[in-house]
Amino acid sequence: MPTIYLETTIPSYLVAKPSRDIVILAHQQLTREWWNSHRHLYEIFISQIVLDEIRIGDREMVDKRTEVLQGIPMLELNSEVESLAVRYFESLQFPVKAIRDAFHLSYAVVYEMDFLVTWNCAHLANANFLLRLSKLNRQWGYETPIICTPEELIEYPKED
Prior knowledge:
Oligomer: single chain
Structural class: alpha/beta
Strand content: 5-15%
Largest sheet: 5 strands, parallel
Helix content: 40-55%
């Protein structure tokens, strides 16, 4: 079964109140569709970074995000995850506020996840970023997971 590292934006979009922004609203709906109908096709993992991030904000939303992640296995922080996150942060020039994104990426790579699923298209699910990341990972001897949105994991019926 393919493996997924689930980044924080997914549980956030999953339980958020419907947005007035039509693009975000579409992302929320696609997230719910994938979660309800397609996630069973994957083995899903999270990290302490995800738990830390979902605990920020409105108490009601924190409880909802925490509830949807109940029972999802957590990847352990180790020295390889830490050192690779620092290397990514420096080499890929993440903004200071995006240090956690370097850690999400590091978990997915070190634990050899097939996918890193996110709506963070600024620092993760971005074609130009993926090109730079893939080149670095080849140099450093790592495989690059497919970094995508839930929409890209929805399997539509095949047409005849």
